[in-house]
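dumping the sequnces here before i forget
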Amino acid sequence: MWKGKSLLLGAGISVAIVIAFICILSVFDDQALSKTPDPTQTVMYRADIITFDNMDAFGKLKKPKAVFLHDLHTDALEKKHKDCMTCHKVENGRMSPKFMHTKAINREELTKIYCDNCTKCHSETIAAGEKAGPVKCDECHRERPLIKSSMVEMGFDKSLHYRHLKAQKDQCERCHHEYNEKTQKLFYAKGKEGTCRYCHKKETQSTKTEKVISMRLASHFACIDCHQKTKAKQMYAGPVRCAGCHDATEQSKIEKISHVPRLKRGQPDNVLIHTGDQKVRIPQMMRVPFDHKAHEEYNDTCRVCHLASLDSCVKCHPLTGSTDKKVITLETAFHKLGHQSSCTGCHESKQQEKRCAGCHAVMAKDGQKDAAECLRCHMVPSPERTGVLSTSKAAKMARLMPQLWKETFGPIYHVQVPKTVVIKNLMDRYGPVEYPHRKVYDAIVKQLQSSKLAEYFHYSETTLCLGCHHHSPAAGNPPKCENCHGAPFDENHLDRPGIKASYHQQCMGCHQRMGVTKYLSCTSCHKERKKELQVSSK
Amino acid sequence: MTISRRKFLGWLGAAGMSTAFGKSAAAATHEHFTGYPNSFAILHDITLCVGCRICEDACNKVNHLPPPDKPFTDLAVLDKHRRTTTKAYTVVNKYENKGPSKGPVFYKKQCNHCLEPACASACFVRALTKTDTGAVTYDSSVCVGCRYCMIACPFEIPTYEYDQVLTPRIQKCTMCYPRIIKGQLPGCVEACPMEALSFGKRKDMIKLARMRFRKHPDRYVDHIYGEHEMGGTSWLYVSGTPFKDLGMREDLGVTPAPQLTAGALSSVPVIAGLWPALLAGIYAVSKRKEKIARTEQEQAVAAAMDKKGAAKTQTEEES
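..and the predicted 3d for all of it:
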């Protein structure tokens, strides 16, 4: 009896093992099968695909979204001498970008509008013996559409803004508006113009009193309507077809003006940056003179710095943070690294450019800056000492101060840069390096002069020297490398390379970052010595 | 023999107790062993390596290895991914840069000198030893050539001299143990012109790596490879390119290899030594119980029979 039981048990276990083995094998087989590539289908890309994003609001859809080529339909209608009103309706005197409806409706109604109107027109055209689009559901609603979108976003840059301004003869009210809550109407407020996106967000925002349509709707309402009306008057107008704005090649053809005149919105040339209400709270910090005019040139839109409105920074960013509310303080707003809208963040990103990276990439990014560096920007004494200045006087101060400061505090040594420096105390396998010190210095000065930002912050010639002769005060006679760098792996200075590595890291690192590929191999800087010489030097 | 359910459970309980009160699995290994204090380590900063192969050259010279087929100055060798061999304890391989900087990246491969080496734990003759310097050394005089270490190593480092018929040895980086104990730097570290290899106490090397992360957060992947991998290694790596793109295993976990087997292996002596005695004891006890019961029963039966017999005679007499 006992024997029979163990036999059964053994048989059971072996059957289980075999089954498990088969299962594992089949899983591997499946994986192998799933790796076989799908038959490649040729997919066409077009910029004019309408994706029916308005259907997203209704949650998961029963069928995949239809692929609708807008320009194809515009062209087809044009041939038949039909206009946009065949599909679009008029809303508040302007053509609505919506299809055959204007007001918000529910899912069923919207589906009906799309399906009925599309198929109706298509079947009518087919009945007339012409070529037309699909009439069956699955031909529009494809699981794997063969046409995909290549749409690129359109932006209204400085050049385009100026061209519109010129065409509209400085009539800002043609586009810019404010909203009056009482009359519930749009009106134009002079001097209050801002970028569209301040109010028109990515999605339509609805409150009890006000409905602000999305940027997408607003731009299609305003731009296309105006372009069409201008075109109707037989005048030069911007694009009305999708591809005109949203196709990459078409977009690159849009005329660019190289020197865009300054915007006339009453913005200052030079300002002393406000750090708060001067009467109530007088900041102790030295104030920063800011060249607003110059910075306008560097950026394509005001939004780069003025994120949410064209007010002064302190209006949104308080001087002191609060413990209960998460606010970005003024200090953070100005100094946060990695953000294009903060002063230091933008300046620091410029340091990563090829021409600057040679020196700047090695500098630590742990936010520990020398307090003396603050003075490069913070240079105007607080109102306690200067007294509260009138706007015009503050502007004058802002203009003059950097210049004055440079002349007073910015020491300019006429440094004697040696022509060549011979590095020979490390000779072993390779011979000495004849370093063309003056040539390198001159090349860096040339790079520096190509940037206004660099020129301002490297206020003296000796500042440049700090790129290589680091961690010592800017002066014409820096200490020798060997004074700090000796044998490698000093426990007291863990991150201080030895003398050999510091040369190699400094020189080769800089060459690599600045794209000087000529001097990256061993023998491009020093010649290999003969074997006997190597031994004798040891 | 039939076993009652009650008896079986009793045995099971006894066996369980003996295991529980025996030597625990964790105590068999060094549960909180974090390496020898003040052991050395090498930090390989992959962002600094320029792929010059000078380390390979130096390794070859200090270990008196045979000259390579192609000279060390031939950088075309880097185009193909290589493994360590019996004649090259270290190799530098070139990889595509997926980090923030430009140009290719180079990663030097050699024995990682684990804090708790799998190879040493697999070696039953103790040919491989973790020394307090950090180096895992090899003694060919005791090696039996089983090659268990090669199977055990998660980094596929030890190599075997298949071409030596009579005296084959396991070959791998020694972390230049003979040099370290003399106060010299490992050959590769000394030769590296970029200080892409830093040598020092392991705790200092970890500190140094963190220092670099803090100074240049944009340049590094925020992870020290080898700090915890396989329970920690004496070679540490920092990189801008994700480690998995450099062919470095990220699936190793943080448990040292010996700990994975120690639990099961430590119960072997307990089971092998204690269980037979225990089971034999239980068997003897139950046997004795049975014997006693049987004698008692026999006695009782005899007594009853006697009584019955006596009663019978009495009745007979009465009747």
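Chain B touches chain A at residues 48, 50, 52, 101-103, 185, 192-195, 198-201, 204, 207-208, 211-212, 214-218 (CB under 8 Å).
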